Amino acid sequence: MATLSAKRLATSSTLSWDCNVIQGDYYDGESSAQLAATMQVAANGSVVVLGDQRQQLASFHLEQVKVSPRIGNTARYIDLPDGSRFETRENDAVDQWLTAFGRDRSNRFLNFLESHTKFVLLSVVIVAAFCWWMVEDGIPRAAEVVAYQLPASILDDSSKATLKLLDESFLGESELPPERQQALQELFAGYLPEHSEYQFRVLLRNGGRMGANAFALPDGTLVFTDQLVELVDSDQELLAVLGHEIGHVVERHSLRQTLQGSTVAVIAVLVAGDVSVFGDLFAALPTIIVSSSYSRDFERDADEFAFTFLKDHELSPKLFANVMRKMMLAHEAKSEGDEGEEHTHGDDPDESSWLDYLSSHPASQERIERAEAAAE
């Protein structure tokens, strides 16, 4: 057992005051030594800690100590002003002298709460409700705030990295005739926003396993696959898809989707304003875009943007309904074809994610009906 300082080991005269006595253990704060001890509290608030040989270990006034709150029957810690500590399980005795000196208000309240089952259950319900709110509303709202604070450099870097990965892993050069590509670029140029913080542009790619599809990158790059161009019956239907993808960009859906999966990063920006934490986070954006689709709410928002976009250009939202039907049938046909092969798309996570593209969106028929309703 470590040797205590001479001051603390000094033997005191016999104490004759009227006091409460609490049994416990004493730690000097300088070593791990544990001494059986008693704490005596006098009527005037003076406190003395005595060892098992009646030696005085510490002396102070009650106002100088910090007492841990009562939690069931667990040990209480009484931190003394000289850095030492007295530990006891005589919770009732501690509560009595705290009450006598008017220092028990918070302790009594906490003990009251934790000793009544109904309040414990209420606390559980409140915590559960808060967690649900954070997932359903809190984090999405915070992610939206942060997404619009991100500088253009992050949008550009994440978009370039995503496009590079997709070109290397999924996409190929467009195989449409050069004159067809030129005609499409001229068509799209007339409908892309001119005065915008984004540098909108349309790229044509052979979709390969991705099939008939289109997607938007955070910086305003919009990618259409050859298969989608060949699927539609008119270029106006491509404009419906264009409006939808522009909606994803201006609402920053890809960034918000990514941020919602990183609560720590969102809080770091909101509290400290430090966007450097997103360096590693958005390095994973290519994988996120490839392996998962937007949330149902984001898809509905982009649909509504497309309906307004079409109306603003004197086009009918029915165009969106038409292309949705074609894409739905194309993906269903591709899925049925793959089921007949020995190697199913379920063996390839990347392929599976694209074939299941529509399944994670709002019901396709619902989206078609909303587009038709918007045209009325």
Class from secondary-structure proportions: alpha+beta
Q: For the terminal residues, how far apart are their CA atoms?
A: 88 Å
> What is the percentage of strand-forming residues?
5-15%
Total beta strands: 11
**Strand order, biggest sheet?**
4-3-2-1-7-6-5
Q: How would you describe the oligomerization state of the chains in this entry?
A: single chain
Mean pLDDT: 76
Give the fraction of residues assigned to helices. 40-55%
The gyration radius over C-alpha positions equals: 34 Å
Biggest β-sheet: count, sense, barrel? 7 strands, antiparallel
Number of helices in the DSSP assignment: 16
State the shape: elongated
Extract low-pLDDT stretches. 1-18, 342-362
Provide the number of structural domains.
2
Report the order of strands and helices: HEEEEEEEHHHHEHEEEHHHHHHHHHH
Keywords: Hydrolase, Metal-binding, Metalloprotease, Protease, Zinc
Pfam families: DUF7092, Peptidase_M48
Protein name: M48 family metallopeptidase
Cofactor: Zn(2+)
Structural descriptors:
376 residues, alpha+beta, PH-domain like, seven-stranded antiparallel β-sheet, four-stranded mixed β-sheet, 16 helices, 11 strands, 51% helix, 15% strand, elongated, disordered N terminus, M48 family metallopeptidase, protease, metalloprotease
Brief digest:
This protein is an alpha+beta fold.
Walk me through what this model shows.
51% of the residues lie in helices and 15% in strands. A seven-stranded antiparallel sheet has the order 4-3-2-1-7-6-5. Strands 8-9-11-10 form a four-stranded mixed sheet, with helices on both faces. The chain has two domains: 6-103, PH-domain like (Roll); 150-375, no CATH class. The chain has 16 helices and eleven strands. With 376 residues, it is α+β, with helices and mostly antiparallel strands. It is elongated and about 100 Å long. The chain has helices at 6-9, 91-100, 105-114, 117-147, 152-169, 178-189, 226-231, 235-250, 253-259, 263-272, 278-281, 285-291, 296-312, 318-339, 349-355, 364-375, and strands at residues 19-27, 35-42, 46-51, 56-61, 66-67, 76-79, 85-88, 172-173, 201-206, 214-216, 221-225. Residues 211-373 form the Peptidase M48 domain.
